[in-house]
Write a structure and sequence with these properties.
Number of strands: 0
Distance between the termini: 76 Å
CATH superfamily of the largest domain: Tetracycline Repressor, domain 2
CATH architecture of the largest domain: Orthogonal Bundle
Strand content: under 5%
Number of domains: 2
Helix content: over 70%
Largest sheet: none
Number of helices: 11
Order of helices and strands: HHHHHHHHHHH
Length: about 210
C-alpha cells in the first residue's frame, strides 16, 4: 500500500505542494512577527498560530526559529544584493566614498523594515543558534561585497596592501550594526543613520589609507 502511494505522481505532487504552501505561510507569518515583536519576542508557537498551522508542522519544515529567520532574511536581502551588484561597479570616488554609497543603499533598504533587520542583528548574539543559521555576521555575500570594494581600493593604491582586509570588513560590519542602536534609542531614520555611518567610515578609512 505504501509503495502504491509513493509511486503515485499525483499524490507526491500534492504532498510537495502542501509542504511548500506550509513553508510560505510560516515564512510570511514569521516575517511579520519578527518585524513587530523582534527575534526574542517571537516564539514558534506564535508563528504557528499566525500561520494557521500546527507547531509540529513548523518544526517539520524548519529546524529552529533561527532557521526561519535565516530564510526570511535570505529572501529579503537577495534583491538588495542584486541592486548592489548592479550599482557598485559604476560608483566612483575614493574607497571611503564608495563604502559610504554602499552603506547608504543598505540603510535606505532596511529602513523599510527596521525592526526586521534588528531581529537579524539580534540573532547574531543568540548562542543557541545552529551553525546552519545565517544571522547578521554569517552573511557571506555582504562581506564579499565589502571585500570587493576594499580590493579595488588596494588595486588603486587607496588602501595599504599590507593590511588584513578581513579586519577592515569586521570593523565596518560592527559599525554598521552598532549604528542601528540609533533607530532603537532615538527613532533615527535612514538619513540620520547614514550620516552617522559616514563619519565612522571616515575614521576607519583614516587607518587603512596609504601614507
Amino acid at each position: 500500500m505504501k509503495a502504491d502511494v509513493g509511486s503515485n505522481p499525483a499524490a507526491a505532487s500534492a504532498r510537495s505542494s502542501q509542504k511548500e504552501a506550509t513553508r510560505q505561510r510560516v515564512l510570511a507569518a514569521a516575517r511579520e512577527l519578527f518585524d513587530t515583536l523582534g527575534f526574542q519576542g517571537t516564539t514558534i508557537r506564535e508563528v504557528a498560530r499566525h500561520a494557521g498551522v500546527s507547531v509540529g508542522s513548523v518544526f517539520t519544515t524548519f529546524a529552529s526559529k533561527g532557521a526561519i529567520l535565516s530564510e526570511v532574511m535570505q529572501n529579503r536581502l537577495a534583491p538588495l544584493y542584486a541592486e548592489l551588484d548592479a550599482v557598485m561597479p559604476h560608483v566612483r570616488g575614493s574607497t571611503a566614498d564608495r563604502l559610504r554609497s554602499m552603506f547608504a543603499i543598505h540603510f535606505a533598504f532596511e529602513a523599510q523594515h527596521t525592526r526586521l533587520f534588528l531581529s537579524h542583528i539580534a540573532a547574531a548574539y543568540d548562542w543557541t543558534l545552529p551553525p546552519t543559521a545565517r544571522p547578521f555576521g554569517r552573511t557571506p555575500r555582504l562581506q564579499e561585497i565589502i571585500g570587493e570594494c576594499l580590493g579595488l581600493g588596494v588595486e588603486q593604491g587607496d588602501i595599504d596592501p599590507r593590511l588584513d582586509l578581513q579586519e577592515i570588513i569586521d570593523l565596518l560590519m560592527a559599525a554598521y550594526a552598532w549604528t542601528y542602536r540609533l533607530a532603537v534609542t532615538k527613532g533615527a531614520d535612514a538619513k540620520t543613520m547614514t550620516a552617522a555611518m559616514d563619519c565612522q567610515i571616515g575614521l576607519i578609512a583614516s587607518g587603512f589609507q596609504t601614507r
